[in-house]
Each structure stands twice: as structure tokens, then as C-alpha cells.
Amino acid sequence: MICEIIYSAPDNVGRRTLEVTIDLWKVLAGAIVGFTVGLTGMGGGALMTPMLILAFGINPGTAVSSDLLTSLVMKPVGGAVHYRRGTVQWPLVTWLCIGSVPAAFAGVFVLKQLGSGAAVQNHIKTLLGWALLVAAVSMAAKSFMGARAGARRLPAEARQPLSPKRTATILIGVAGGFIVGMTSVGSGSLMIVMLLLLYPRLTAKELVGTDLVQAVPLVASATISHALFGHIDLGLTGALLIGSLPGVYLGARVSSRAPDAVIRPALILVLLGSALKLLSVQNAAVVWTVVIVALVALPLWGATDAALRPEQQWEGAGYRRTTWVTAQAVAAPFGIGFALALYYFATVRRALEAAPGAVTPAETLPSVESAVG
Fold this sequence. Notes:
The protein is mainly α. It has 15 helices and two strands.
């Protein structure tokens, strides 16, 4: 579906015509990705870039640069919300940017040195495939580590002021910036996991707010680099923004009612399948890999979630923690744990969250303002 907009305006010589062509399918793709980002808080690059390459056949280099420009428009919105609410750790932002801004510029420069034409585009697809694999693992690790950190986190009045680990934080910025510059993936999925490893006492809102704010200069550096060394398709970017901006807003509005424990594993499977496809794995192998991972990973996820919940929740809900942890973990390798996990997330977990002493979603999950991360 193509929509053409033609605008004519007078100038000093005669008439000037501006023609803009908008592909409504790309607008829809932007809306889907934006809604998903708003629903879950995950970074949009991990979804948008592979969709543009695999579904629309966009040149990988153009897909990366256009996605970065789209992110550059979206991220300041969420960053401004966290700035107003005071959930940004500015010392961390400073040290992260010292590493990430030049590293993003360097990542684009190195990418352009790999060659031109079909060769470099294949390099980009391969790099993006590996980055998506890392992003999928990072999403799973973030959920696990976030739950553990939430269980150990001290009350606000008992917490000590944050002491930045300067060298380690700069290195996180360098690693994340370099990957973002080359693939557009990482500012909202990889770096937040590394921050969680280094600063486990940060709250979820502080992690998201800090990551969002530091991502603004990072993405700006990567976007400027692509504008200098590569090509940015403004028509493609405009179509994506038309769909993604309202999509992010709607996703954030319904995020409090979304079954996050089911949506995030599904997104991890999507990232895994996209990564394997970009790495030129055969379609049958991609399907079987995703199916096997789903059958095994979901019950393991459920067992981990069950193990980390406090005993008072189980007593209040009338279930036994040992039973559900053991059943899902033991059945996972045989494929039958998948059905148990579905029942756990659909029924048991809801009863646990409604039980006395349950931890509210705001204490364990990123806030809806992370939608543009």
C-alpha cells in the first residue's frame, strides 16, 4: 500500500513541489514494533531492524541507519519522563557517555571499512544476527537477575549513595556503543543488562531511566556517523515514525494489564528466530530450534520465577512452592513441562500476585515510561 502526498508552494521563481511517498505497510510495521516496545519496554532496534531486512527486503545498511534515526526521535520522550521524576543516575550517565559516544562513531567507521556493495551488506546481516542472539540471551538474563535483585534490594531509606565504578562503567559504554553503531541493537537491551550486573542495587526505574538518558547521545552519535559515512532513508524513517509514535503510546497505556511473563518469552523466541534467519540458517532448522527452545525454556523460566517468590505468597495463595518448582524443572527436558508452565503463568502466578505479601509489578518490572527504550 503506497500513499503519495504532493504539496505545492510558491517561491521567488514560480512554484515548488514537494513529493513524499509513504508505504502504509511500513507504517503498520512501525506501529507493531512501537506497540510492542511500549508494552514491554524492550529496545526497538532488536525488532525493527530485522523486520525491515527480512520482511521488506531493505538494504541492511539502510535499515540500521533508518532505525537509529527513528530511535533518536523516540528516546528523548522517555528520557524526559525519567528526568522529571528523578529516576536518572547522572554520574552513571556521564561515565557511560564517555565510552559510548566515541565508540558508536568508531563502530560505524569500522563497519564502513569492511567493504561496499553486497559484501558489506552480508557482513551487516551476520553482525546483526549475532547481536540479536546476544539480545535474546540478555532479555532472559535481565528478567532473572531483575527478580533476584528485587528480592535482595534494600528499602529506600536503608540504601547507600551510589558510588560509580568509573573504569567498568566506561567499558560498558564502549562495548554497548560499538555494537549499537554497527547494528543499531543494544542501547535498550544489552547495556541495561550490563548495568544490572555492575549495579544490582539499582531499582528497575533507575536502571531504565539511566539507560534511556545515556542512549540519547549514544544514538545521536551513531546516527550522525551513519549520515556521514552511509545513507539514511528519510522516507522510510518518516513512515516508521508515523506508526511507531502512536504505537508506543498505546502500548504504554495497556502495559499494566499485559501478561508480561508470557509476552517477553514470546519476544525472545522472535529474536532467536530472526537471528538464525539472518545467519542464513535453513528455514526448517530455524523452526525446529525455536520450537525446542520454547518447549524447554518456558518451564525453566516458570521454575525460576516460582523459586524466587517469597514463601508468604505461596501460603497466601494455597500452593506449594516446592511442587511447582520441581514439576516444571524436571519436566522441562522432556517437553511436557511446557503445558505445566502455561498453567503456572495463567493461573498459579496470578494467584501468587494477588496473595498477601505479593510484590507489585512496579517493584520488579520496568515502568511504562521505559516504552521508548
